[in-house]
């Protein structure tokens, strides 16, 4: 599946401090968190955005495993964005990240409302 570069934002980095976003997107993380909590922003702020989040972390962090990815997903949805593929969580200690990524439900991600209903393949 390919998306035109003008239609997506991608951030990739390694797991860092448990439960915190990696150092590359701190502004975006702070803006999303503050906007999602700000009643003035409203639930329609990002209503034209369709997104997918695939977190890569380590289960060695326990309860904070992929917390940053979960937060990004929650904040985007709170601002009205549509999650087209269910949140994916990869474990660097637990196996093949590519296989976990490929198992996500990609059908519907390029059009329609929301993902689900099928497998990419």
Automatic annotation (TrEMBL):
GO MF entries: 4 iron, 4 sulfur cluster binding; FMN binding
Annotated GO biological process: wybutosine biosynthetic process
Entries under InterPro entries matching the protein: Flavdoxin-like, Flavodoxin/NO_synth, Flavoprotein-like_sf, tRNA_wybutosine-synthase
Flavodoxin-like domain boundaries: 38-102
Sequence segments annotated as region (Disordered): 1-23
Biased composition (Low complexity): 1-17
Coiled-coil region: none
PANTHER family linked: S-ADENOSYL-L-METHIONINE-DEPENDENT TRNA 4-DEMETHYLWYOSINE SYNTHASE, S-ADENOSYL-L-METHIONINE-DEPENDENT TRNA 4-DEMETHYLWYOSINE SYNTHASE TYW1-RELATED
Annotated protein name in UniProt: Flavodoxin-like domain-containing protein
Species annotation: Eleusine coracana subsp. coracana
Lineage per the UniProt record: Eukaryota, Viridiplantae, Streptophyta, Embryophyta, Tracheophyta
């Amino acid at each position: 599946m390919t998306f035109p570069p003008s239609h997506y934002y991608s951030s990739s980095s390694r797991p860092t401090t448990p439960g915190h976003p990696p150092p590359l997107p701190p502004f975006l993380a702070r803006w999303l968190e503050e906007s999602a909590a700000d009643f003035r922003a409203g639930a329609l702020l990002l209503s034209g955005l369709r997104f997918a989040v695939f977190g890569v972390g380590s289960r060695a962090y326990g309860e904070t495993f992929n917390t940053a990815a979960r937060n990004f997903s929650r904040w985007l949805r709170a601002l009205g964005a549509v999650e087209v593929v269910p949140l994916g969580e990869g474990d660097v200690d637990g196996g093949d990240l590519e296989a976990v990524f490929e198992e996500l439900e990609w059908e519907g991600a390029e059009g329609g409302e929301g993902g689900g209903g099928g497998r990419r393949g």
